[in-house]
Amino acid sequence: MVPPVAVSPVIKTARWSFLLIGMFYGKQRYDYLKPRAEKERLVEEAEKKIREEQEKIAKALAEGNIFFNSSEC
Amino acid sequence: MAQAVQKLVAKVPTLIGAAATYSKPRLATFWHYAKVELVPPSPAEIPQAIIGIKNIVTGVNSGRLGQTTVKDAFRNGLVCTEVMMWFYIGECIGKGGIVGYAV
Protein backbone atom coordinates (compact mmCIF):
# COMPACT_ATOMS: atom_id res chain seq x y z
CA MET A 1 0.00 0.00 0.00
CA VAL A 2 1.20 3.49 -0.75
CA PRO A 3 2.14 5.24 2.50
CA PRO A 4 -0.23 8.09 3.37
CA VAL A 5 1.04 11.44 2.17
CA ALA A 6 1.78 14.27 4.59
CA VAL A 7 -0.71 16.98 3.71
CA SER A 8 0.53 20.56 3.92
CA PRO A 9 -0.85 22.55 6.88
CA VAL A 10 -2.22 25.20 4.52
CA ILE A 11 -4.51 22.70 2.86
CA LYS A 12 -5.54 21.16 6.18
CA THR A 13 -6.47 24.48 7.78
CA ALA A 14 -8.19 25.61 4.59
CA ARG A 15 -10.31 22.44 4.42
CA TRP A 16 -11.48 22.42 8.01
CA SER A 17 -11.99 26.18 8.24
CA PHE A 18 -14.09 26.05 5.06
CA LEU A 19 -16.08 23.23 6.63
CA LEU A 20 -16.80 25.30 9.73
CA ILE A 21 -17.54 28.45 7.69
CA GLY A 22 -19.87 26.42 5.49
CA MET A 23 -21.74 25.08 8.51
CA PHE A 24 -22.21 28.60 9.86
CA TYR A 25 -23.26 29.91 6.46
CA GLY A 26 -25.78 27.12 5.97
CA LYS A 27 -27.30 27.67 9.40
CA GLN A 28 -27.50 31.45 8.89
CA ARG A 29 -29.03 31.16 5.43
CA TYR A 30 -31.59 28.66 6.73
CA ASP A 31 -32.56 30.99 9.58
CA TYR A 32 -32.84 33.84 7.06
CA LEU A 33 -35.00 31.88 4.62
CA LYS A 34 -37.34 30.15 7.09
CA PRO A 35 -39.54 33.13 8.16
CA ARG A 36 -39.66 34.38 4.58
CA ALA A 37 -40.87 31.00 3.38
CA GLU A 38 -43.57 30.97 6.09
CA LYS A 39 -44.83 34.41 5.00
CA GLU A 40 -44.78 33.38 1.37
CA ARG A 41 -46.76 30.24 2.18
CA LEU A 42 -49.45 32.25 4.02
CA VAL A 43 -49.73 34.70 1.10
CA GLU A 44 -49.89 31.82 -1.33
CA GLU A 45 -52.68 30.14 0.66
CA ALA A 46 -54.74 33.34 0.80
CA GLU A 47 -54.32 33.90 -2.93
CA LYS A 48 -55.20 30.28 -3.63
CA LYS A 49 -58.44 30.64 -1.65
CA ILE A 50 -59.40 33.76 -3.59
CA ARG A 51 -58.54 32.03 -6.87
CA GLU A 52 -60.64 28.98 -6.00
CA GLU A 53 -63.61 31.18 -5.04
CA GLN A 54 -63.36 32.95 -8.38
CA GLU A 55 -63.11 29.67 -10.23
CA LYS A 56 -66.22 28.42 -8.45
CA ILE A 57 -68.11 31.56 -9.41
CA ALA A 58 -66.94 31.28 -13.02
CA LYS A 59 -67.94 27.62 -13.13
CA ALA A 60 -71.37 28.37 -11.64
CA LEU A 61 -71.85 31.12 -14.20
CA ALA A 62 -70.87 28.77 -17.04
CA GLU A 63 -73.29 26.09 -15.85
CA GLY A 64 -75.94 28.69 -15.31
CA ASN A 65 -75.39 29.87 -18.89
CA ILE A 66 -75.85 26.34 -20.22
CA PHE A 67 -79.00 26.07 -18.11
CA PHE A 68 -80.28 29.35 -19.51
CA ASN A 69 -79.47 28.29 -23.08
CA SER A 70 -81.42 25.05 -22.78
CA SER A 71 -84.40 26.80 -21.16
CA GLU A 72 -84.57 29.33 -24.01
CA CYS A 73 -85.23 26.65 -26.58
CA MET B 1 -46.26 -13.03 -3.59
CA ALA B 2 -46.00 -13.83 0.12
CA GLN B 3 -43.50 -16.60 -0.63
CA ALA B 4 -41.32 -14.23 -2.64
CA VAL B 5 -41.35 -11.70 0.19
CA GLN B 6 -40.45 -14.44 2.68
CA LYS B 7 -37.54 -15.59 0.54
CA LEU B 8 -36.30 -12.00 0.27
CA VAL B 9 -36.57 -11.45 4.01
CA ALA B 10 -34.63 -14.67 4.63
CA LYS B 11 -31.89 -13.41 2.33
CA VAL B 12 -31.43 -10.07 4.12
CA PRO B 13 -29.04 -11.31 6.88
CA THR B 14 -26.80 -12.93 4.27
CA LEU B 15 -26.85 -9.72 2.24
CA ILE B 16 -25.91 -7.66 5.28
CA GLY B 17 -23.13 -10.12 6.10
CA ALA B 18 -21.83 -9.96 2.54
CA ALA B 19 -21.92 -6.15 2.61
CA ALA B 20 -20.00 -6.14 5.91
CA THR B 21 -17.29 -8.50 4.65
CA TYR B 22 -16.99 -6.49 1.46
CA SER B 23 -16.74 -3.11 3.12
CA LYS B 24 -14.56 -3.94 6.15
CA PRO B 25 -11.18 -4.04 4.38
CA ARG B 26 -12.09 -1.01 2.28
CA LEU B 27 -13.14 0.92 5.38
CA ALA B 28 -9.87 -0.17 6.97
CA THR B 29 -7.82 1.25 4.08
CA PHE B 30 -9.90 4.43 4.13
CA TRP B 31 -9.30 4.83 7.88
CA HIS B 32 -5.59 4.07 7.40
CA TYR B 33 -5.25 7.00 5.01
CA ALA B 34 -7.79 9.31 6.64
CA LYS B 35 -6.03 9.07 10.01
CA VAL B 36 -3.03 10.86 8.49
CA GLU B 37 -4.42 12.88 5.62
CA LEU B 38 -7.86 14.09 6.72
CA VAL B 39 -7.23 15.01 10.35
CA PRO B 40 -7.77 18.63 11.37
CA PRO B 41 -4.62 20.71 11.81
CA SER B 42 -3.03 20.52 15.25
CA PRO B 43 -2.57 23.86 17.05
CA ALA B 44 1.12 23.77 16.14
CA GLU B 45 0.34 23.62 12.44
CA ILE B 46 -1.86 26.70 12.27
CA PRO B 47 1.05 29.22 12.40
CA GLN B 48 2.72 27.17 9.66
CA ALA B 49 -0.46 27.49 7.62
CA ILE B 50 -0.48 31.27 8.07
CA ILE B 51 3.16 31.43 6.94
CA GLY B 52 2.26 29.25 3.95
CA ILE B 53 -0.55 31.58 2.92
CA LYS B 54 1.85 34.55 3.20
CA ASN B 55 4.29 32.67 0.94
CA ILE B 56 1.58 32.21 -1.62
CA VAL B 57 0.69 35.90 -1.50
CA THR B 58 4.35 36.91 -1.95
CA GLY B 59 4.58 34.40 -4.77
CA VAL B 60 1.67 36.07 -6.52
CA ASN B 61 3.11 39.54 -6.00
CA SER B 62 6.61 38.65 -7.15
CA GLY B 63 5.31 36.87 -10.23
CA ARG B 64 6.81 33.55 -9.21
CA LEU B 65 3.41 31.92 -9.49
CA GLY B 66 3.30 32.88 -13.16
CA GLN B 67 6.15 30.40 -13.68
CA THR B 68 4.18 27.33 -12.59
CA THR B 69 3.90 24.64 -15.17
CA VAL B 70 0.52 23.69 -16.60
CA LYS B 71 0.79 20.34 -14.86
CA ASP B 72 1.36 21.97 -11.49
CA ALA B 73 -1.35 24.54 -12.11
CA PHE B 74 -3.82 21.79 -13.01
CA ARG B 75 -2.91 19.87 -9.88
CA ASN B 76 -3.26 22.97 -7.73
CA GLY B 77 -6.60 23.72 -9.35
CA LEU B 78 -7.86 20.25 -8.43
CA VAL B 79 -6.74 20.72 -4.85
CA CYS B 80 -8.48 24.10 -4.65
CA THR B 81 -11.67 22.56 -6.04
CA GLU B 82 -11.54 19.87 -3.37
CA VAL B 83 -11.10 22.50 -0.65
CA MET B 84 -14.08 24.45 -2.03
CA MET B 85 -16.21 21.29 -1.87
CA TRP B 86 -15.64 21.11 1.87
CA PHE B 87 -17.41 24.48 2.13
CA TYR B 88 -20.46 23.07 0.37
CA ILE B 89 -20.41 19.97 2.57
CA GLY B 90 -20.37 22.30 5.58
CA GLU B 91 -23.30 24.20 4.10
CA CYS B 92 -25.24 20.95 3.70
CA ILE B 93 -24.56 20.13 7.35
CA GLY B 94 -25.60 23.60 8.46
CA LYS B 95 -28.84 23.67 6.53
CA GLY B 96 -29.80 20.12 7.50
CA GLY B 97 -30.31 18.65 4.05
CA ILE B 98 -28.49 17.71 0.90
CA VAL B 99 -30.57 19.35 -1.82
CA GLY B 100 -32.05 22.74 -1.09
CA TYR B 101 -33.26 24.33 2.10
CA ALA B 102 -36.16 22.61 3.88
CA VAL B 103 -38.06 25.76 4.82
TrEMBL record, chain A:
Any one GO cellular component localisation term in the record: proton-transporting ATP synthase complex
GO molecular function, one term: proton transmembrane transporter activity
Superkingdom of the organism of origin: Eukaryota
A Gene Ontology BP annotation from the UniProt entry: proton motive force-driven ATP synthesis
Compartments, as annotated in UniProt: Mitochondrion inner membrane
Chain coiled-coil ranges: 36-63
Record key words, sorted: Acetylation, ATP synthesis, CF(0), Coiled coil, Hydrogen ion transport, Ion transport, Membrane, Mitochondrion, Mitochondrion inner membrane, Transport
InterPro entries, per the entry: ATP_synth_F0_esu_mt
Pfam families: ATP-synt_E
Signal sequence, renumbered to the chain: none
Primary role: Subunit e, of the mitochondrial membrane ATP synthase complex (F(1)F(0) ATP synthase or Complex V) that produces ATP from ADP in the presence of a proton gradient across the membrane which is generated by electron transport complexes of the respiratory chain. ATP synthase complex consist of a soluble F(1) head domain - the catalytic core - and a membrane F(1) domain - the membrane proton channel. These two domains are linked by a central stalk rotating inside the F(1) region and a stationary peripheral stalk.
PANTHER family, alphabetized: ATP SYNTHASE E CHAIN, MITOCHONDRIAL (PTHR12427), ATP SYNTHASE SUBUNIT E, MITOCHONDRIAL (PTHR12427:SF1)
Family listed: Belongs to the ATPase e subunit family.
Assembly behavior: F-type ATPases have 2 components, CF(1) - the catalytic core - and CF(0) - the membrane proton channel. CF(1) and CF(0) have multiple subunits.
Protein's name according to its UniProt entry: ATP synthase F(0) complex subunit e, mitochondrial
Organism for this UniProt entry: Oncorhynchus kisutch
TrEMBL record, chain B:
Subcellular location: Mitochondrion membrane
Sorted UniProt keywords: ATP synthesis, CF(0), Hydrogen ion transport, Ion transport, Membrane, Mitochondrion, Transport
GO terms assigned for molecular function: proton transmembrane transporter activity
Annotated InterPro entries: ATP5MG_metazoa, ATP_synth_F0_gsu_mt
Superkingdom in the source lineage: Eukaryota
A GO cellular component entry from the record: proton-transporting ATP synthase complex
Keyword Plastid applies: no
Pfam families membership: ATP-synt_G (PF04718)
Stored PANTHER family: ATP SYNTHASE SUBUNIT
Protein name (database record): ATP synthase subunit g
UniProt organism field: Oncorhynchus kisutch (Coho salmon)
Gene expressing this chain: atp5l
